[in-house]
């Protein structure tokens, strides 16, 4: 197979018979040109009938697709078995081969949201778990590295949640050299603040952009 990379994603909406059904598609650039391809053709999901890869994010190279699929419900820290709608696992999909690589990152319960992005080296993965439960409003930032995606950096920020003033604020942003990671967070009761991770050290910038 020649070179293949994704240029973007889109969602095809089918109005009949189900007005809410959406079919993810990829805009691919190959040696033969540019074409749309159904995600289902690239990625035969192994999570069972009706499983759907969603919340799609492309790596900067266009070679890896990140998304959530229903988890098996077995990996629960509190002993509770979650339904597929309540528990999802982050998967990495090689755009050229369709090969699936599961990560240890799991969203559990409706109070959690996952935000994620892959570094330019296609090896380092940044994941933020946003916990919106009233009694425990916090974010956990993890950086996973290596073929086994081992956690090398992890920080918990209490009384904080992710910024949502701009669409790009919902995902961590890597610098082109992969040394810096930036994200926007909102300390409870305060304005948006930028956060940088530099070689494993966390630095809060103190900058408060306007809305």
Shape: globular
Characterize the main sheet.
Answer: 5 strands, antiparallel
Query: What percent of residues adopt helix (DSSP H or I)?
Result: under 10%
Rg on CA atoms, Å: 18 Å
Class from secondary-structure proportions: mainly beta
- What oligomeric state best describes the polypeptide chains here? single chain
Percent of residues in beta strands? over 45%
Q: Could you report the average pLDDT, rounded to the nearest whole number?
A: 74
Number of strands: 16
Cα(first) to Cα(last) distance is 46 Å
Helix tally? 1
**Uncertain ranges:** 45-50
Q: Topology as H/E string? A: EEEHEEEEEEEEEEEEE
Tell me the number of structural domains.
Answer: 2
Mind explaining what this structure looks like?
There is one protein chain. The protein is mainly beta and 211 residues long. The protein folds into 2 domains: 102 residues, no CATH class; 92 residues. It is 2% helix and 52% strand. The chain is built from 1 helix and 16 strands. Strands 12, 13, 14, 15 and 16 form a 5-stranded antiparallel β-sheet that branches. A 4-stranded antiparallel β-sheet has the order 4-5-6-7, with no helix packed on it. A hairpin with a 5-residue loop joins strand 14 and strand 15. It starts with a strand and ends in a 7-residue tail after the last strand. About 3% of the residues have low confidence.
């Amino acid at each position: 197979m020649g070179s293949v990379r994704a240029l973007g994603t889109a969602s095809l909406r089918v109005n009949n018979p189900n007005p809410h059904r959406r079919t993810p598609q990829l805009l691919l650039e190959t040696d033969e040109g540019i074409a749309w391809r159904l995600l289902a053709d690239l990625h035969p999901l192994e999570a069972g009938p009706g499983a759907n890869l969603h919340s799609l994010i492309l790596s900067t190279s266009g070679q890896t697709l990140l998304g959530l699929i229903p988890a098996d419900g077995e990996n629960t820290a509190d002993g509770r078995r979650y339904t597929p709608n309540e528990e999802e696992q982050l998967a990495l999909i090689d755009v050229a081969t369709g090969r699936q690589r599961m990560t240890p990152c799991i969203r559990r319960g409706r109070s959690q949201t996952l935000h994620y992005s892959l570094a330019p080296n296609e090896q380092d993965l940044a994941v933020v778990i946003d916990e919106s439960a009233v009694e425990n409003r916090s974010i956990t930032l993890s950086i996973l590295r290596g073929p086994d995606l081992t956690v090398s950096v992890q920080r918990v920020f209490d009384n904080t949640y992710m910024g949502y003033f701009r669409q790009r604020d919902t995902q961590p942003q890597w610098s082109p050299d992969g040394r810096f990671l930036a994200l926007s967070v909102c300390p409870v009761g305060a304005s948006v603040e930028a956060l940088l991770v530099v070689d494993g050290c966390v630095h809060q910038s103190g900058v408060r952009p306007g809305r």
